[in-house]
Amino acid sequence: MEESGELVRIHKFIADMGVCSRRAAETLIREGKVTVNGVPAEIGQKVDPNTQRVVVNGKTLKASQMPKAVTLLMNKPRGVVCTNEDPFGARTVFDILPPVYQDLRLFCAGRLDKDSEGMLVLTSDGDLAQKLMHPSQNVIKRYRVLLTKPFDPDHIRVLLNGVEVEGETLSAEKIIILKKTLAPGRDLEVHLRHGRKREIRRMMESLGYFVERLARFQIGRLVLRGIGPGHVKPLSRREIGLLFGEKE
Q: Does 144 have pLDDT greater than 90?
C-alpha cells in the first residue's frame, strides 16, 4: 500500500507520542495491543501518522497531538542515579526534577554513575539522545577528576594509548594535570570521546589510582554554568547545537 507523507517506524511513533519507550512499544506490538487501520501492527512496520489510524491499548494516537520535544541540562548531584526506576530504591535524577517536568517521558542522553556529578542531558527526543551518544558523532566530554594520590605524568601516554579492562579497551582523548588547585598533582582534567560505563574510574583503578571526586563540566562546546546541584534549565536550539560542537 502506497502511503502519503513521511513514513516512520511504528515503535518510534508510539515512543514519540509519549506512550512508552521504543522497546516497550515493541512489546505492545508483539502482544497484539497495537493496530493500524484496524489491523494488528507488526514489528518494524512503517506508518504515516497523518493518514493512518494507530491505536494503542484502545487509544487512538493523533500526530497533531504529539508533545513538543523537551531537552534539559541538569547539574546532577552525587548520590542520585541515572535511571527511570532503581530496584534498590535509590533516588533518581527524575525524582529531583521540578514538578513541571515530572510527568514528561524523559531519559538520559549519556549517564553519570551514582557517585559522579555535573553535566547531564535529559530529553524526550529519542533521536537526539541516540545521536548524542553515538560514537560516530565524536562528541568530546570533559571531566574534572580528583584522585586520592598524585598522578604520575608517565601514565598520561598509557591512558591515551588505551588499557585493557575486563575485555574492553578504555582510553582517554586528553589528560591535563592541574597544578594551580587545592590538590596539585591529584587534580586532573580528562577528555573522553566514548564515555563507557564508569570508564574514567576503571581506567584509573587499572593503574592503581582511585577517584575521590568526578564531575563532568562540558559536552561538545556547551559548558555547565550557572546551574546549582540538582537544578535544571531547558536547552535552546542553539545550545543543543553546541553539544555537537557547532560554533556559535
A: yes
Helix (H) or strand (E) holding 239: helix 237-243
Bridge partners of residue 74, in order along the sequence: 120, 232
Residue 113 falls in the annotated catalytic set: yes
Per the residue annotation, which of 16, 103, 113, 125 is the catalytic one?
113
Q: What is the pTM of this model?
A: 0.80
pLDDT band at 247; cut points 50, 70, 90: low
User: Which grid cell is 157?
Assistant: 601516554
Q: Looking at domain 71-135+225-243, which of 3.30.70.20, 3.60.10.10, 2.60.40.3080, 3.30.70.580 is its CATH number?
A: 3.30.70.580
Average pLDDT over residues 115-125: 94
CATH superfamily of domain region 140-219: Alpha-L RNA-binding motif (3.30.70.1560)
